Amino acid sequence: MSNTVKAIRIDAVGGPGQMRLVDVPVGAPGPGELRIRHHACGINYIDVYHRNGMYPLPLPAGIGMEGAGVVEAIGAGVEHLAVGDRVAYAGQPPGSYSQARVMPAKTVVQLPDAIDFETGAAMMLKGLTVQYLLRQTLPQAGLERGDFVLWHAAAGGVGLIACQWAKALGLQLIGTAGSDEKCALARAHGAAHTINYRSEDFVARVREITGGAGVKVVYDSVGKDTFERSLDCLRPFGLLASYGSASGPAAPLNIGLLAAKGSLYVTRPTLFTHIATRERTQAMADDLFAIVQSGAVKIPVERRYALADAAQAHEDLEARLTVGCSVLIP
Ligand code: NDP
């Protein structure tokens, strides 16, 4: 068992070039921790926020919140896993862009034998996000089969999983995306309607598609470029789930707008509240694994990069060149 592994580190925040492939020591896991040997690492937009400083990290820092591999060592008090288990996780702290790492065990779960490592690495952070956005926000928002929802960036990693899961739940997902090709991909994954928001006015198109009524829920991960107009897509009492900022942070909200636009609700949720305990993480992962194993949701791993090419992966993600999920192979 090697004590030195290759890993991505940043010493300062900035562009993709801040990520350096270095040799780092990996020790034995402490209480509540495990050591995992990664077979694949998921790439997520949150990794960009960590790298560019939008979500500040103590430096120097590792990058990456999602991975899959095999348990190499177990710390005291970890009872739900054993050495040799195939596992996957979405979890803190960042550091999955590595050949191996030590991390808290509570967000690590067993990966079913039928799910390969690349799929496992791609599906945890993005799939658990769709799980809580659809399955836990759904009752809050009073969503029922046949209802319309609007999902921005529908051809992305989270987006293509959402298109499929929403269809399985009987929802009519209206997806936005940045090109006609991306729109076609979202429809092929179950979006009922799509809007190219670079060439079309998405508010007008949502009104047209819904017969003027608007949608019950908007899922907005784009932020600055879409937030306020997303409110205009809601029907009275509708809910805006603002869960990301790919175009930059949304402007501060004048809360009076929520009254003016029809007694609206706004939430700013994060996955990390939802997976704060091992029990919740396991329950959400079981739900995700079940829908993937049923075949209703297929995890679209579209790009694979070597660990040394992490900077290229970030350039492609930020340039909006990717669709679906991308993974690093360590
Ligand atoms: P994606 O694969 O969806 O990539 C981001 C997409 O955002 C791009 O492909 C692009 O699609 C769209 N986009 C719109 N404007 C911009 C812009 N100015 N710059 C770059 N991209 C832009 O990433 P992920 O699937 O990893 O994540 C999707 C979103 O979900 C992110 O905002 C992320 O932060 C958020 N998220 C939030 C979580 C939470 O719990 N709150 C958890 C997980 C993810 P297009 O070209 O079609 O517009």
UniProtKB/TrEMBL annotation:
Presence of the UniProt keyword Cell division in the record: no
Originating species: Rivibacter subsaxonicus
Record NCBIfam families: PRK10754.1
SMART domains noted in UniProt: PKS_ER
GO molecular-function terms, A-Z: mRNA 3'-UTR AU-rich region binding; NADPH binding; quinone reductase (NADPH) activity; zinc ion binding
Annotated ranges, domain Enoyl reductase (ER): 14-328
Keyword terms of this UniProt record: NADP, Oxidoreductase
Any Pfam family: ADH_zinc_N
Protein name in the entry: NADPH2:quinone reductase
GO cellular component: cytosol
